[in-house]
Amino acid sequence: MFPNEDHKTFYSLLGLLSASFAKMEYRLSQILSYLIGGEHEVIRETVISNNKLHDNINLIKKINAYREIEPELINGLMIKIKSISEERNLFIHGIWHEPHEKDGQIICLCESKRIRHQVQKKELGGEYSRWLRNEFHSYSIKSFEKRIREVGQIIKIQDELLQKLKMMS
């Protein structure tokens, strides 16, 4: 399966990053559950159960605007999570190509099959419209390690917030 150790390292980091994203999303649902509060666990879990990441972010913002629990911390956390959410979707749902060496480092391309519309201005005036498909994003082992640290920092903040929320409930 792995032609060499670099490939093994790359795919191991991709797996670790995917697991870290899952942990971050789970912590987010726990935070939302505490913010919803109340004694009816079934109601809380029904509200949360099938939400997407952006749904939970939006619910946390709305509920905490009313609850006002650690507003600066929670708003900052939501900004951090939202800023990596698009890349998270790419990592999880993108099509990964074989790692290869480029400029002395191992690079892997991730292909996004998302179609998007773009309007550009012409040099001599006016605009033209086009549809873009199959964007390619390049990642190195170092960029994966950086993302793993970023998600780890988010999880650490989430854990600290969860401790505060547990003491409040």
Brief digest:
This protein is α+β, with helices and mostly antiparallel strands and 169 residues long. It has helices spanning 5-36, 41-48, 53-67, 71-93, 141-168; strands at residues 95-96, 100-102, 105-112, 116-121, 127-132, 135-140.
Polypeptide structure, described:
By secondary structure, this protein is α+β, with helices and mostly antiparallel strands. It has a domain at 5-94 and 142-168. The protein has five helices and six strands; from the N terminus they run ααααββββββα. The protein has helices spanning 5-36, 41-48, 53-67, 71-93, 141-168, and strands spanning 95-96, 100-102, 105-112, 116-121, 127-132, 135-140. The strands form two sheets. Strands 1, 2, 3 and 6 form a four-stranded antiparallel sheet that branches. It has a two-stranded antiparallel ribbon with strand order 4-5. Helix 1 (5-36) runs parallel beside helix 3, helix 1 packs parallel to helix 5 and helix 3 (53-67) runs antiparallel to helix 4. The longest helix has 32 residues, at 5-36. It is globular, with a radius of gyration of 20 Å. The model has no long low-confidence stretch (mean pLDDT 88).
